[in-house]
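Troubleshooting entry. The earlier prediction with adenosine-5'-diphosphate gave an output that would not parse, so I re-checked the input for stray whitespace and re-submitted. Clean input:
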Amino acid sequence: MSGGVLELRGVSKTYLDGSDEVHALREVDLVVEAGKMVAVMGPSGSGKSTLLTIAGALESATSGEVLVAGQPLSSMSRDDKSRLRRRAIGYVFQDFNLLPGLTAVENVALPLELDGTKAGKARAAGMRALEELGLADRASRFPDQLSGGERQRVAIARAIVGDHRLLLADEPTGALDSTNGEAVMRLILAACKRGMAAVVVTHDAQLASWADRVLFIRDGRVVDRTSPRPGPDSLLAEEPAR
Ligand code: ADP
């Protein structure tokens, strides 16, 4: 596979608002390789959520091409796309989107079951994901019996269960205090270390500095790409310039 897990080539998205055209994304190019986390920052209305919904095959680009795992979305049928969404992509939205009538482990196992995994096996995978996130003892609770931080971790477990290649997270720490926010970033980073690619929208520069790259968007355009600030990992990884 050339390129990355996610590749956007000259992607634009125009919405019609009455008779007005809203240019939510303009000619965005982006490659996210396996094992990498890209943070996306930008003011409200700059196109961050649009970028995630297009990268996640939830909406189509107006022009340009999106490739997930090397496959152009434009060449896929509706069924191919929904299979890709279930199998390859994990989503974490700000409002968590947990189903209130299902327990934590049932919520996590649901995407696997929808994809044809037998209930017992899906549940076992769901339990493993919850264990990894320190939530084994919360598995049989319903979402309204969990704290905000716990609900968010369940949503992350659901996004990383199975062998998802790509994690798309819209303000995953938005509703959390700084301790829980950092814990969530650590979990996403751990998933990346196992080979997942992640795109994380955040307002928090501190949390964005955990990413391999930070992308700034303004008015639908990528205006800057910043390498991470030097941290312990980058000091170990990089040879000093000679
Ligand atoms: P952000 O996530 O950075 O706040 P969005 O991607 O939600 O920005 O929105 C980018 C622009 O596109 C905004 O001007 C927004 O009003 C517009 N937009 C987003 N979704 C729609 C839609 N479904 N219909 C019309 N305009 C939309």
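This one parsed fine. The longest strand covers residues 20-32.
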